[in-house]
Amino acid sequence: MQAVEIYTTRYCPYCIRAKQLLQHKGVEYKEIAVDGDNAARQTMMQRAQGRHTVPQIFIGEAHVGGCDDLYALERAGKLDTLLAG
């Protein structure tokens, strides 16, 4: 299984939804909170080609995008394949 990283903030409803989908699928992930952490936010933005909103989700080396992108992969039946590597 590919490593999953998700950049979040504490009260972001989209972050919560994305984490719920990953948890429902039994996927372990590393959560990186960017609340008040400018260095972590800058790293996120560099990795996400300038995107500054959360969540920003990475599966392996692939930048998935945000919550809507994650759910779109799931609806298209492509999320499990990406997670499997």
Automatic annotation (TrEMBL):
Pfam family, one: Glutaredoxin
InterPro entries noted in UniProt: GLR_AS, Glutaredoxin, Glutaredoxin_subgr, GRX_bact, Thioredoxin-like_sf
Keyword GTP-binding: no
Keyword list, A-Z: Cytoplasm, Disulfide bond, Electron transport, Redox-active center, Transport
Domain of life of the native organism: Bacteria
Domain Glutaredoxin: 4-64
PANTHER family per record: GLUTAREDOXIN 2, GLUTAREDOXIN-1-RELATED
Family: Belongs to the glutaredoxin family.
Function according to Swiss-Prot or TrEMBL: Has a glutathione-disulfide oxidoreductase activity in the presence of NADPH and glutathione reductase. Reduces low molecular weight disulfides and proteins.
Protein name: Glutaredoxin
